[in-house]
Structure formats: structure tokens, C-alpha cells
Amino acid sequence: MITRRFLLKSATLAACSAAAHPWLSTMTFASVPGDNRLVVIVLRGAMDGMDAVQPYGDKGLRALRTGLSVGPQGGAHDLDGFFALHQDLGDLLPLWQAGELAFAHAIATPYRDKRSHFDGQDLLEAGTGNDLPIDQQKGGWLNRLLQDMPNARAETAYSVGTEEMLILSGKAHALSWAPDARLSLSPQARLLLTDVYHDDALFREAAADAEAIGGSLPEDRMMGAKGPSADAVKLATFAASRLNGDTRIAAFSLAGWDSHARQQQVIGRSLGQLSAAILTLREALGANWARTTVLAMTEFGRTARENGSAGTDHGTGGAMLMAGGAVRGGTVYGDWPGLAEGQLYQDRDLMPTRDVRAYAGWAMRGLFGTEAGHIEGTIFPGLDLGPDPGILR
Amino acid sequence: MTPDFPSIAALRLGYGFAPHAAAPGDLAAVMASVTEAARPDQWTTQAAADAQIQLAESRKALNAKEIAQEDYRRVAQGLNARRLEVLQRRVARALDAPCGFGERLVQFWSDHFTTVAQNPPQYLMAGAFVDEAIRPHLNGRFGDMLFASSTHPMMLVYLNQNTSFGPNSRYVKARPEKRLGLNENLGREILELHTLGVGAEYTQTDVRELAELLTGLSFNIRDPQRFRVQAAEPGADTVLGTSYGGPGTDGMAEIARVMGDLAVHPATASHIARKLAQHFAADDPPPALVEDLAATWRGTGGDLAQVHAVLAAHPALAATFRQKARQPFDFLIAALRSLGVTGEQVLAMEPSRVNQVMWGPLTLMGQTFGRARGPDGWPELAADWITPQTLSARIAWALRQPERLVDPLPDPRDFLVTALGGTASEALATAVPRAESVREGVAIVLASTDFNRR
């Protein structure tokens, strides 16, 4: 019995063997699926949306939190008289003012109640609901988007980082590379390995891709990245370098959001990384920033109440960050559910009022013209897209 | 080229050649390694539960300001070091085994029954899973391994069986506000992944009935009780046409009975025969090998010793030589073995060194230890492992690590023979002497297709 997966992999290999540099050789002349670019950042560990974007205008907030999320009085930046931006996202204020930064609040995936990071992230990346059998939960929603894009090629989508990104895994061929991956060979070693790999298509092509990708890295810039946000800067730099070429979709993840204790320090560090990643993308993308949408999403929010160790525990509703020249910024999107008694989910978490996938769905509809029926039936099976929130310019 | 038996035994069945161990000369030596691997290591459920309790209580004490931050950090760091030790001990046994077949089987069966650790104490529990559910049954019956796996705390937690309750059980009826109920996760995976295989003829009803039969299984770090009758769904359950449980039966014994029946089911024989053949012989496994393994399984009621022996002696292994890519863990062990690194050296490594030489590189190569993506385990196909960035990570290891581990480095021409015996291709044998330095010569051997395939 030959499995479908085996056939898929074999077909990919056979195609690779056809040319020495299967994607590089055609890169310059390839038609690409439009000029718009989508970057998805998965925030692993559950970002506290109520701290990143603090609803200080809601009178209920102070009853739930005293040390955290106190709004402008605690150093946060007022956004619109109701929400305030966490001080460690302060470097992004110019983007807010330029209309290039927005948030969606009180959002969630369909995942409920078990509040497991692992399952929550899997569901976020799979883009499915809870009701599908496990074999249909394989593969990520960005890959299903890729399958639907005309003129998509391997380099159209890039997974960046050492870990396998479920969000881009699936039938369509996407490229992957880790900024820390290096192929640093002396000319002689390169020559010898070329001989050694010559008769083995799998090794020959992987090495050719590795050499091609590795050779095109903005080496000096990335080597220079230092400090607590160095990894985020490297990921963003690499993603931008691809997006400035033929890549239109890039995905990477930032971890470290699980702020059960000492949240101020934990989330401060992580927000600093997110902020650095966004600013790096903006700078490195140059003119292409105008056609870029960045979505930073997390598996779930955190408890509305502060816990006993100056942190928060796993919750439900949270927030998503949207940035880019293509975004209609300066707005916190969503219906605010309120924080008063009876308004919390299970008397514990921010009540989600919209599926986070609806925002991603409207983004891909605007960026790539994906049909609504395809989004609701295939890319995010079971999703009700609902009315257009108008997040893109 | 048809490789000789010692080369087959070392490269295809084991973790490769080592200068400190002669390759096994016959089938008896190969099978002796399975007996050796069946001996448990040091990890136990009790120790893992104690570690979990210790961490929880330290956190509580820290929150209550009874201990200082650095006291808590010391506990957490200690646990982290023991997490690394699970890898170190696994590597050490694979390095010191004269023939690696037994340890390769530990890897295969631990992956067949995949669990994923979420935190340091769970790594210890995953270690206990291997020692308590896998190793003792390597030479025994698959049905016993299946029962041990399906009732082990690591599996109960990983596949949510510890939160599955009979909807009509006394336990659930007494707590209506908690809305407890059935979780099908373990029941489904037992049928789909561990026994029959997804293509077999079972239905959603079988999944649900098996899940109901499994209710009552539980695990709590402070309670050794593995089965609580008050949480079990009352009444009999029918799985694949056979009735289990019901009035007057013993819950645990009935779970053992259904596992015994699933273990000898012809679909289970075919499913696992194919997996074994695919893992040891070729991504597209030779039908004759699959059928011989399945026939042995059916004929012996899933006697693993006999199934393993048929595999080890099968001519298909020579016929499909080098059709498999070594997975990163195999690559790491084979590289360390060929360099003559011993278990003792690995066990003596500081945590930072373990991260530098083993844990970190495995992650860069795409196989973080103990962290398969899902319950279906690590992928099997060569194309899953040889990607641009993961091949680069192998080449980087080959260039950087050997000189940190071995002083002086071996002459590359000698190393070619140490690492590959007489199996090196002409292209590699030509390339190695042309390397500009010893370091690069050794690296070319380790990065070669010959070495990265088996």
C-alpha cells in the first residue's frame, strides 16, 4: 500500500530533480500572485490581550486588576480614550499615529475551556473548529490559502525559524529556513560535498536550496542583532528579505507569553520582541510595507482577574495585533463585551465576541481576492465570516 | 553492492559502527541486544510524580513567600538538569550497546506509542513510560505492551484519558455542575494509531464504545490508584462485535481483554508490520517483508521476539540498503558512535554541553527530543528529514562538534572505514582524501549521503 503522503512527497522530489536549482532558476521571471504580502506571527504561550491593549475606560477593569493594566496612569499610552497601549509597545505609537497599526479585541479561536497551550496553538494554526476528526485537523490554514492562490510557487510562502510551523504545513510546497541555519563551507568542502551528493536527488536539491537561501541572507545585519530582541529581529529580517523577493506569505512565531507570575517583566520582554519584529519588518520591507499586512495572533487570552502572583492564568478572549501599510489602522476593532459582573466568560475570562479567523479571513479576501465561500468552506471550515470589519485600506 | 551481515546489523538494524565495539557477527548477537535493551533504566512513575509534587510545592511556597526566588530557581534548575538526563541516559545506552538493534527498537516502539512532554517533570514521566511500558515488553507480547501503554500515567495524561468520565457514572452524577463526560481521544488513537490503523474497518461507534470501556482509568500525582470504578461508565460495551465489561466484571481485567483482542487482530498485524518494514527497510516498504512480518504476527499472536527476529534476518534489508534517511536522533547517535564517544562521556556532560552537542542540534535538525508534533509520532519519509535548513544543521554539526568531542581527530581516511566499514561509495572514498583539513575530511564523511542514509 502506498500512502497519499508518500506519493505527494515523491512527486515533489521528482519535480525537484528536473532542474538543478528548481526555484532559483525561474525566480526572476516567475509571475507572482500579486503584490500584497501577508505576515502571520504566532504568539506562543497566550498573550494577555487585556494588558497589551488595556481597556482602561471600562469601569470594571479596576475591580479585576490593581497592579496590572492600569492604563495611562501606569505609563500606558492612551489610544482612543477607552483603550491604552502597553508602555512596552510604545515604540509602535508612531505606527498608530500613521494609521498603520490596529488591534482586534475580544477575539478567540473556537477553542474553549481546556485552556491548553498545546491544543490551543494547534487549533489556531490548523484554522479548524473543534468538531473535525483528527485526520482533517492536519495541515495549516496558510497552506490551504496557498493551495488556492493562482501562480503560487514554492517561494510564495516561507516558514521562518527552526521549528516546524503547522500553520504552513500541508499539500502546497512552501519553503522553510531558519535564520540561525548556516551553510558555511570552504570552497573546497562545497565542491567535495557537491560530488558526494551528486547522485542523490534528495540531498543534492536540499543542499542546493540551502546554499541558494543561505547565500542570499542579509548576513551583516542579522549578525549584528543583539540583546533580548535579537531573535525576533533575525526572524523579521529574514522574513522581510524573502518578502522583498517573490515571497508573499511569511510565518514565524514568538514565544514567552505565559505570564503566570511577575507579568510585568514577562510580558514586557515579549512585547519588546513583538515591537522589534514589527519595526524591523517595516524598515526592512521599505516600499513593500505599503502592501503588507501583519497579523500577530495568540492561542487564547488570559484571566480577566490578576492572580496571587502578579500574573494572570489561562483565559479565553484576547487581542490580535494588525500592522502594515495595507492596514486601516488607528482603530481597535471589535465589539467590547464589558467587564462587569455577568459579562465575563465563565465569570473568569474576557468574553470573546468574534472569531479571530474572521479577521484573518477578511484579510486574505482583501489581499488575495480569496472567495468567501472558499474561506468558509475550506480554509477555515465552518467559519461564519460575518460582516466585513474593514481592516484593510 | 550487497553489504555483509555485520554491516546490515550495524547500519540498518543498529546505530552504526563504533571503534569500541565489534559489529555483531550473527543473528544471536543482534537478538541479544534486544534482551539487553529490555532492562529498564532508572525512571519511574513514582519519581516523576514526586518531581511534579516538589515543583508544585516549591511554587506554592514561593507564592506564599516561604522560600526565596533563588530557592525556587534551584529546584527548577535541578529538574531541568534531570530533563536533560533523560536524553543523556538514552544516548549513553545507545552508544554503549555493542549492537544497537535493541535501542533502535526502544526508539521505534516509543514512537509508535508517542507521548509528548510539556514540562520538565513530564520528561521524567516520559522516561518512566519508556522504562515501564516499552522496554519490559520488547521481547514479550504486543498485547502486554499495548495494555501497559494504554494504562500508563504518561499516556493517560497525554491523550486526556485522565479527564474522561462515564457520563452515567456515580462520580459524574454527583457533580452535575462540573459537566464532566467522555473524552474519546485515547480510545480513538488506540484504534487508529496503536492497533488497527486508520484504514481498518472500525466505526465511530467502536471508538465511542472503547472510550466508554476505558472510563475509570485515571491518574493523579498524589493517588496511586489507576482505576476508579465510580468514574467508569456502567454497562457493557461492544468493540468490533465483542462485548466487554458490564455487571460482575472487573474493569481493569476487561480493558486488558480488549487490548489482548486488538493486539492479535489481523488489521493490527498488517498495520504494524508495514510500519516496522517502513521504518527499518524503505519508505515504500517491500511487500514480501511486510507480509512475512504480518504472517509471523498472526501466527504467534503478536509475539514481538519472533517478529523482531524475522525482521532482523530478512533478505529485504540487504535489497533496500540505504533507502532510509537516518532521523536526527539516529544521526546523532551514529555520529557519536563513529567518533568513539562513550556513554560515560555523555553522562558526565554539564547541562550547557548537553544543550550544545545534543539537545540544540537535534532541534535544529528538526527533531527536538521527546517533542513529536502529534500522537502519530515522527514522520518516516526521507523527504521529511532532509530539508534545506535541517541538512544544513547536520553539516554544521559535522563541521563543528567532532573537534570538541575528540582530540585528536582521526585521520579522515581511517574515519571513513570506522564510520562506514566497507560500504562507502566510490564518490565519497574519492572525496575524503581531497579535503583541505582533517576537520573537513571528518565532516564530509559525517555529512555524506552514505552516512545520512542507512
Automatic annotation (TrEMBL), chain A:
List UniProt keywords, sorted A-Z. Answer: Signal
- Which residues belong to the signal peptide in this entry? 1-20
**So which domain of life are we looking at?**
Bacteria
Q: Does the keyword NAD apply?
A: no
Task: Spell out the protein name for this chain.
Answer: Twin-arginine translocation pathway signal
Q: Which organism is it from?
A: Paracoccus sphaerophysae
TrEMBL record, chain B:
| Domain of life according to the entry | Bacteria
List the Pfam families hit by this protein, alphabetically.
Answer: DUF1800
Q: What is this protein called?
A: Uncharacterized protein
Q: Supply the source organism for this entry.
A: Paracoccus sphaerophysae
